[in-house]
Specification:
With 276 residues, the chain is α/β, with parallel strands linked by helices. It has eleven helices and nine strands. Helix 3 crosses helix 4 and helix 9 packs parallel to helix 10. The mean pLDDT is 95.
């Protein structure tokens, strides 16, 4: 195994640690690939800086310039079925693809980059196979497109490979009651901190069930946009004893903005953390 391969292996083994990435950047400098080394260091620095830090402007400009210049070379190894969704901290960490392609080929991508996030389209009847797959192991973020059959939610809720999942993003689907009931009964996602359930429509009862259960106390981010939540649902959200750790709550697209009482209740509870 070459030095480069060994260093990459260290990154793959611990994708949350910046240290191996910075060592890899030093090695790239030694190999004459300074642009990629600078890109890695720049993205790591951006990930560490607060959003209002004045140093960000120069770093963002450097990041954009490097990306525009070198994107083709840095992504030429990515198979055509995988759409590059995002580089973070210098490496490809998120792709978007069809569920069938994920099952057939994601192992090859995971051997070359610390892939921690996927956006999956075309689930349909493959949903159960995906939710049972060891290929989900180690993922921090999963975004699921439309078309998941209701019977698959229980499989997701019992999946043994989601111990590190931080974010779950679910597109519209039928039977939202079953989705919410299986989620709040699940013990498979202990690290989950962000949930996005948009455009089902969810309605007041499933939304109330979600925020009324202690399961929701883990959440820092909750997105319930475009779900036909009315004043009754907004009241349950505002009164929930489990949402004390929320830092961002999205309720845009629901019939609430024109309801003064709903907006008042939500603002009183969440202040600027809520979008209505």
């Amino acid at each position: 195994m070459s030095d480069g391969d060994a260093l990459l292996r260290a990154i793959l083994d611990d994708p949350d640690d910046d240290a191996p990435r910075l060592v890899y950047a030093d090695w790239l400098d030694e190999q004459g690939d300074s642009p990629r080394a600078i890109f890695i260091r720049t993205q790591i620095e951006l990930a560490r800086l607060p959003a209002d830090d004045p140093a960000r402007d120069g770093l963002v400009q450097a990041e954009r310039t490097l990306w525009r210049t070198h994107r083709a070379a840095w992504t030429e190894w990515v198979p055509s079925w995988a759409r590059v969704a995002e580089f973070r901290r210098g490496f490809l960490e998120e792709i978007r693809c069809q569920a069938a392609d994920f099952l057939a080929g994601v192992d090859g991508i995971s051997r070359q980059t610390p892939l921690v996030a996927v956006r999956l389209d075309g689930m349909d009847q493959l949903a159960i196979v995906v939710f049972q797959s060891r290929l989900l192991h180690g993922l921090r973020s999963i975004r699921i497109g439309n078309g998941v059959p209701p019977t698959a939610w229980l499989i997701l809720a019992e999946c043994p490979y989601l111990g590190k999942l931080h974010r779950l993003d679910i597109g519209s689907s039928s039977n939202p009651d079953r989705l919410i009931a299986t989620l709040i009964a699940s013990k498979a996602m202990p690290a989950l901190r962000g949930l996005r359930v948009k455009g089902f429509p969810l309605g007041d009862e499933p939304a109330s069930l979600l925020v009324g259960n202690v399961w929701s106390a883990r959440l820092r981010v909750l997105d319930l946009g475009n779900n036909f939540i009315t004043l009754a649902g907004a009241r349950k959200i505002a009164e929930s004893p489990h949402l004390g750790r929320i830092v961002w709550l999205n309720l845009m697209g629901n019939p609430l903005a024109s309801n003064g009482r709903a907006v008042e209740l939500l603002r009183e509870r969440f202040g600027t953390k809520v979008r209505v």
